[in-house]
Amino acid sequence: MERRELDAMLFIASKCWSPDAASRPSIDQILKALCEIMLNSAIPPSDANTFWESPICDTGFRVSIRWDELIRLIPTTLTEQQLNVIGDGLCEKVGFMNNKVMTMQRWYQNFLWYGCWFNGSSDPLLLAMYDLFTKDWFHGTVDREEARIRMAQRPDGYFLVRMSNKDNNYPFTLMVQRSRRATGYNVKETLYFRIQRLSYSMSDKERFFLRFTADNGKIYDFSRTTIPSLISSLQKYKFLLFPCPKTSAASFSSYISSPEPIPTEVSF
Q1: Helix (H), strand (E), coil (C) string for 9-35
Q2: Which tens digits make up the pLDDT trace of 41-86?
Q3: For the chain, which terminus, N or C, has the lower number of CB atoms within 10 Å?
Q4: Are residues 155 and 214 in the same domain?
Q5: Count of C-beta atoms within a 10 Å radius of residue 232
Q6: Mean per-residue pLDDT for 111-138?
């Protein structure tokens, strides 16, 4: 809890202990103030905070909302199938039915990762998110250790992209499997490349930037509007060959025959 929320709590407490009983807040006023503190603590003042306050909390304060309820509040022309894919990428799965649920914390983290995807003019951004979530190389919010396990023992050229919450200016991490010579042996290693977000606006041609080091040590700079177009450019130059499956390779042999190369057509 930030200092501003602590100060707000102290203010409420001091009002409740006022010597003048008439000036003490009612229970409804206390509950409203506590809800505001909870909201501002989980979602700092921003477009995400404003939208959660209204319309999400119009009928009462909520700490989470089901995806099927949420999409009814978001003006969009996307199909139900597209929205379901986006919901799978954005929400947490709860219960034995794996219901898609958006918590306050997840809502704000998605806002930092993707931008304001929930307002009335967000269809281009939603379509870009749908395109990203349908890529077999995108592993979503999988943590670093699980991603490392998935990449282990893969042949050279396998890669994946995952979300990162360490620095909101670098929301994506590209992981690439590569071998290097060391004392007469080929040593497999997983390289990590952080993808920088330059802009949230879909009208900008250079929203994401990546500095990539090739096998020969040469450095290449790539700037593209979307993550898929960025990855397509790397594939065009044969820097990335095969999407890493979303399962562990530990049960397989250290040698895995390579499938046919995936298409390398660049889309801008």
Answers
A1: HHHHHHHHCCCCHHHCCCHHHHHHHHH
A2: 999 999 999 999 999 999 999 999 999 999 999 999 999 999 999 9
A3: C
A4: yes
A5: 20
A6: 94
